[in-house]
Structure formats: structure tokens, C-alpha cells
Amino acid sequence: MRAAWGGLLSKTILFSAPFPPPSTLVAVVGVLGTRSLGIRATKPKMEKKNGLEREAVRKKENVINSNPKVNRIQQLMNGHSHGGWEKCWDQGLTPWDLGQATPIILHLHQSRALPKGRALVPGCGTGYDVVAIASPERHVVGLEISDTAIQKAKELSSSLPNANYVTFLKADFFTWLPTELFDLIFDYTFFCAIEPDMRLAWAQKMRDFLKPNGELITLMFPISDHIDGPPYKVSVSDYEEVLHPMGFQATSIVDNELAVGPRRGREKLGRWKRSSVIQSLL
Ligand SMILES: C[S@@+](CC[C@H](N)C(=O)[O-])C[C@H]1O[C@@H](n2cnc3c(N)ncnc32)[C@H](O)[C@@H]1O
């Protein structure tokens, strides 16, 4: 079964224009955010879904299966490896792009629940999440392998008030060497985009790029049973398998009740710290 970004969604639901003014974002998340108090903690292992929930997820995947854009993306990726991403951007094949920041990261930012300092968003695409969490107290680096995506991100962010607090860099996450370490790394739809055999290298980079007491936040998506990719299916144990050997432990894993449209029920928010730091806090 094939699945996709569930990206058939949001432009119709919330925003038609890319990079809405921050006031719009605040208003929308203000509305969505009232529900976020109900964010439900789950065990770090994937919980079993009941029959109805499984059926709902299967229906969403079936709808998405028929998305020809995803099939085309997978063909491009199979044929071109890294260059495939540039081709996707070049051809406008970006069904993952929400056209807005993901509401949960904006909510965490607005509720002052994110570390300050330096933040990194790898595989940042158009950079909505980068801009959303940037502030005078937090400088955010958006890293992208695609020139087209970086150009788009720069153009879209240039006129925004917090443009001064973002840097967009074109580089390969796996070979890039930052000049300074980070207090926060936010991964959304990057883990599921890379080849599964790169996940251990992904975790090593997370360890290497974070300050010792830095925090990794993973918005895990798509939690499903499909085969093939990108996007490759993910599960909480997929993250644990590569993050535990690097000394990371989850400080919380919760269902993302602010997930947008078809992504609902298929996202979990994981917050991770290196275990030596967790032990010293006890
Ligand atoms: C599925 S998209 C997600 C984009 C963005 N996070 C979002 O949610 O809209 C994955 C992104 O990762 C980028 N990417 C893939 N491999 C990369 C690498 N090795 N280094 C940096 N970026 C990469 C792709 O160009 C693509 O824009």
C-alpha cells in the first residue's frame, strides 16, 4: 500500500496564501490551541488502535494512494536519489507542503514551551516552521538540499518581521558541519523523507549538532502501515531504535491533536534529551 504526505489538505482548509501574516497565524493557532490542552500523553511505544481507528486510517491512506503526485515523486526519488528532491521542487511536486507552519510548533512557540537560543530545522522546505519559531530570543537555521526550496523560503520570509532571526542554508544534512551547536532541533517530515537506511546517520547528526542539554523535537509522521516511500512509514519504535543508542530518551511522546486534516491520528510529538542530562535533572 502506498501512502503520502496527507498534503492534499490544508491549502483548502486554512490558508490559500503562502506565509500568511503572523497575525493570521496567531489567530488560527489561537483557535486551534484551545484544543491543545487536551493533548493526550501516550506510552512511548505505539499504542494499539481499535478497529474503528484502524479503518479510519486505512480510508485516509486509500484516498492518498490515488494521488498521482506521490507516485511521480517516488519515481523521481528512485531514479535520482538526492537530485530527485530538486526535481520535485522544480516541478512543483510538493504535496507535503502545508502552506503554513504546522500548528503544534506554533503553539509550542507561543506558549513558551520551546528552548531559546539556536534552533535548526533540517529539510525545512519552504521554511514556514523556521519562520514561525524565530524570534529575538531564538535564531533559527533552515537547512535544505534543494536550491529551489531555499530560494522560495528566502523570498517568502524576506518581508516578514522576524526575517532577521532566520538563516536559510543550502546544504546536505548528512555532510554539513555547523559552526555552532544548537539548543533545539525540530524535525518534521524529514525523518520520513530520508531512506530508512540513513536513519542511524540521522540520529548521529542529531547527537552531534545538539548542545549537551539541547532538545530534539520530532513530529513523527506518517504513523501508518504503508510500504514504499518517500514518505516512508514511521513508528515511535523506529525513532527509539536509532535515538536510544545515541543516548537520547523521550521526555514525552503525545498524540498531536493539532495535526492538520488527513494527518490527524497519524502524528505524534516526541521530545528527546540525552540521557545524561535527564539523569542530572532527577
Ligand atoms: C518531505 S519534504 C518536507 C519539507 C518541510 N519539512 C515541510 O514539512 O514542508 C523533505 C525535505 O527535505 C529535503 N531534503 C531531503 N534530503 C535532504 C538532505 N540530505 N539534506 C537537507 N535537506 C534534504 C527535501 O528537499 C525536502 O524539501
Task: Describe this protein's structure.
The chain has eleven helices and seven strands. With 282 residues, it is of the alpha/beta class. It has a seven-stranded mixed β-sheet with strand order 3-2-1-4-5-7-6, with helices on both faces. Helix 9 links the parallel strand 4 (182-188) and strand 5 (210-220). The protein starts with 9 loop residues before the first helix and ends with a helix. Residues 7-48 have low confidence and may be disordered. Residues 85, 96-97, 122-125, 143-146, 149, 172-174, 188-190, 193-194 line the site of S-adenosylmethionine (SAM).
Largest sheet: 7 strands, mixed
Derived from helix and strand composition plus strand pairing, the structural class reads: alpha/beta
The low-pLDDT segments are 7-48
Beta-strand residue fraction? 15-25%
* Mean pLDDT over the residues: 82
Which features would summarize this protein structure in a list?
282 residues, alpha/beta, seven-stranded mixed β-sheet, 11 helices, 18% strand, binds S-adenosylmethionine
Topology overview:
Blueprint: H1 10-13, H2 22-36, H3 51-65, H4 68-80, H5 82-90, H6 103-110, E1 117-122, H7 128-133, E2 138-144, H8 147-158, E3 166-170, E4 182-188, H9 199-209, E5 210-220, H10 236-243, E6 248-255, E7 268-274, H11 275-281
Parallel strand pairs: 1-2, 1-4, 2-3, 4-5
Antiparallel strand pairs: 5-7, 6-7
Helix pairs in contact: 2-6, 4-5, 9-10
The structure holds S-adenosylmethionine.
Keywords: Methyltransferase, Phosphoprotein, S-adenosyl-L-methionine, Transferase
Protein name: Thiol methyltransferase 2
